[in-house]
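Contributing: when you submit paired examples, paste them exactly as shown. First protein:
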Amino acid sequence: MSVEAAYLERTAAGQLSEDPAQLEAARKLDGVLHRLQNAPSGGLFRKPPHIRGLYMWGGVGRGKSMLMDLFHELAPVPSKRVHFHEFMGRVHDEMNAWREMDESERRRAAHRVKGTGSDPIPPVAKLIASEAKLICFDEFQVSQIADAMILGRLFENLFEHRVTVVATSNRHPDELYKNGLNRELFLPFIEMIKEQCEVFELKSERDYRLERLTEAPVWHLLQGDAGEKRLDQAFDRLTLGAKPNQCFLTVKGRKLLVPKEAAGVARFSFPELCEKPLGSRDYLAIAANFHTVLLDGIPELTPDKRNEAARFVALIDALYEARVKLVATAAAEPDDLYPTGEGSFEFQRTASRLHEMRSKEYLALEHRVPPRAQELEQTGK
């Protein structure tokens, strides 16, 4: 089975509409499969050749994640599919763990690299390479200086270990970490990606996400099982049936669970985001990493829920700044969510934003990294 054959099988079954750009992308992915399947093995005195990967970029809603699913299922080598932000969170955790080891612990570690001492990048790269020879990155983007400053050396080591990279992104490599602090130090990484991966733009003229956002309401006055079912349908529709995953975002050293995500779409319940002690940094991380958020079960915000209301306001501010699309089930229309009590007057601004976020004009806007997220990252606040 090839990616192209799997794709055509889905179109024949009516699950997808055949798109020439998606078909071309499937063939590019098949090229990587062919290289992996036919690569000569290494010998005692020579390493196996490095297999060139693919960096597939294009606008939101073009079907990149769906195609990545098909490719990953056919991978002929040990592989891992991971959201890029979660991958980098794990890298930082492993680096910190290596720094905290004493010298005797490092000598005993299976992923030790001789001659590197306390430098954590070579052993962490070796550890990751021992787990997978193919890494499929979903939503490849770089917005944090802590990531940007280590990516060059990290990927140089991964490629030395003959790891193949396939990635999806909304940006051309030249646009990664654009306007970031000390970006000139990041430029060699961009050149490395372009050397080690074929760069391919998925130029579909159709934005399937926008089409599917506008074909049904994004604010549903439903609760309980009926609301959950409606969001189940919306998730499947907006992800083009991509396989859902669970991931963690790292926020100031803490792990923020994303219980369900695929193709740049994340799903949460109101208690998961607004009844827990989360803050602006958490919401900005979500807004930076997902172009669409599904939120289930927004209740009426009575005065005894003023803390939950304050978090909800911060959440909507973050999503609005990043032009994230919101699909929600709620107990009332925005104007009636918080009618009385402390903070209800200020909530009118949030209600206004919720109305705007339902408009066709807002739904057509391009997702962007929230400006405040960049400011917090650069100031270290």
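Second protein:
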Amino acid sequence: MRVYPSSTLRPRLLRRRSFLAGLAGAAGAATGADAQQSGLKFATGAEGGSFVVYGGAFVDAIKLANPKIGLRPVPSRGSIENVPLLEAGTVDIGLVFGEMAQELFNPKDGTPSQVKVLSTAYLNPGMFVVRADSRYHTIEDLTGRPVIWNARGSGLALQGRFVMEGLGLDADKDFDAIYTETLVEGPAMILEGRAAALWGAGNRWPGFVKIASDTRGARFITPDDEQITRIVDKYPFMRRITIPAARYPGQSDPLSTVGSWTYVLARPNLDEKIGYELAAALHKAERLGTMFGGQLDESTAKNTLKALPRRDVLHSGVERYFREAGLI
């Protein structure tokens, strides 16, 4: 198992308990009208990931639908940092991978988190990418080989772990696991031949685009039909997903794989009025159609209700809007 440091990175994220304890004395995030006036803080992700792209489209959609809602994107390390920021009330809303959200709302041990669901973001199909000139064609071919899972504890790494466990494999023991500290490191390592495969997920995930755009091309490795069935049987919150042809350069055929819903979550006690207005603005943007580069196509009221880990985790303001709009 290898961890690749980066000299350009901020210090590593503290363990969750220490991180939250350190923030306990800090000033809480603004609430109610004050939060709207000063601007809601929206934790997105890091350079090289889908969260930044989606976050930009989300902010544009809310601004267009209701200019009175101030929404300010806050770059972060993604789910691994967004969760403690939300729980501490340091940000108002944030993007979180589905696998991490499941652990928040349905933990094996301890009490569920008090964060709430504002909306689905998109389905996150996960898969491996290798260089097209490599000899790897199946997941079995990759066992024992250097595989990049991205940052340790990240949503991407957690998703990869769930998928491998669904196949009876261990991401650390059955592969030569590599954990990077930035999303941009993984694609470079594949192109330079320093690793066999990179795990990634998302809608036109930038890491996949970079490798597939190289003159040597890319090959995507996904579970086969029998493996997909095994994974979703073990983890019912995961979905069978078909990635359309031409989603990535050189991808001539559709790809079947698994993944889960990514969510826009709200900090505990986010004012009901703010949740209501965000839901109304997002629903208005939904009715405007695909005018945000397709990034918000799956951020619908229908998908949000269908994908809830539990009905009681829907933000109260969102629920009130959905009822008044006749959506539930």
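If you have annotations for the second protein, write them as plain sentences, like these:
The CA atoms of residues 4 and 180 lie 5 Å apart.
DSSP finds 13 helices and eleven strands in the chain.
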